[in-house]
Write a structure and sequence with these properties.
0% helix, mainly beta, two-stranded antiparallel ribbon, single chain, 5 strands, 78 residues
Length: 78
Amino acid sequence: MMARTAPAPEGPWSDELKIFQAARPQDGTNVYDAQAHPEYSEDGSRVMFITYSRATAPFASEIRIVRLEFARSSVLSP
């Protein structure tokens, strides 16, 4: 899962950053439909939850959830 950040929707955008490695399906297919869930964020969005889907068998899949905890910034606002 790659992410970028920006101070506004129109950018400027940061470079890509790998935030986690999704569990790959055993059949070699891809993971899909990653979705951040800001409604469940904690600690001012320092802790976020992301779901994604992956195949488990032909015509079967599962939804997985990942809890991400970002480091606190050491940069102080003026």
